[in-house]
Amino acid sequence: ASYGPNPICKGCLSCSKDNGCIRCQHKLFFFLRREGMRQYGECLHSCPSGYYGLRTPDMNRCSRCRIENCDSCFSRDFCTKCKTGFYSHRGRCFRGCPPGFAALEGLMECVEGCEVGQWSEWGTCSRNNKTCGFKWGLETRTRQIVKKPAKDTIPCPTIAESRRCKMAVRHCPGGRRPAKTKDKKKKKKNLMERAQKQHSIFLATDKTSQ
């Protein structure tokens, strides 16, 4: 039978013009649909979004998913598909995956991610494998991968990082620095000798001209 514009009595064992289906045929699910202030019963092969099928000896029913942001669920407390923008994790829906889990964007699921240990202390400040002879260098710290991700497509976080540092020892003992100082003194001595020689030539030239 059909009452009004919708075939509300399809699949019903008993039906009311005002309330729609009251009892459904075997294997169908009873769903109470609300439209504004009105509500009526329907008999469906599968429950709509946000509901799951609950089978009972008396009558199969569509029961609402009680999990927040769930689009479809397996049972009252286990979501199988979350609403758009939410990730599914162990039957729940999250805006972002919990710590230790990574997001699979295509499936919108949270899977076990790459687990890393604690950062080590910062290493010695060095440059070109030397700890002296420069004003600035780099120091590095590392951490180990404790657990590899379940999927190869999930990258691990950074396990090494470096930062600029100031050398504790600017000049290397016994290095090239003293040689440079000696060279400077030698250059200065040569310049003095050249200046004196030029001055002597100037005086000699001046006497000749007189």
TrEMBL record:
Q: Where is this region: Disordered?
A: 173-210
| Xref: InterPro entries | Furin_repeat, Growth_fac_rcpt_cys_sf, R-spondin, Rspo_Fu-CRD_dom, TSP1_rpt, TSP1_rpt_sf
Q: Name one GO biological process term.
A: Wnt signaling pathway
Q: Which SUPFAM superfamilies match?
A: Growth factor receptor domain (SSF57184), TSP-1 type 1 repeat (SSF82895)
Indicate where this protein is primarily found: secreted
Q: For bias kind Basic residues, which ranges apply?
A: 173-189
Superkingdom, natural source: Eukaryota
R-spondin Fu-CRD domain: from which residue to which, for each copy?
9-110
- State the protein's name: R-spondin-2
Q: Which organism is it from?
A: Sapayoa aenigma
Q: Which gene encodes it?
A: Rspo2
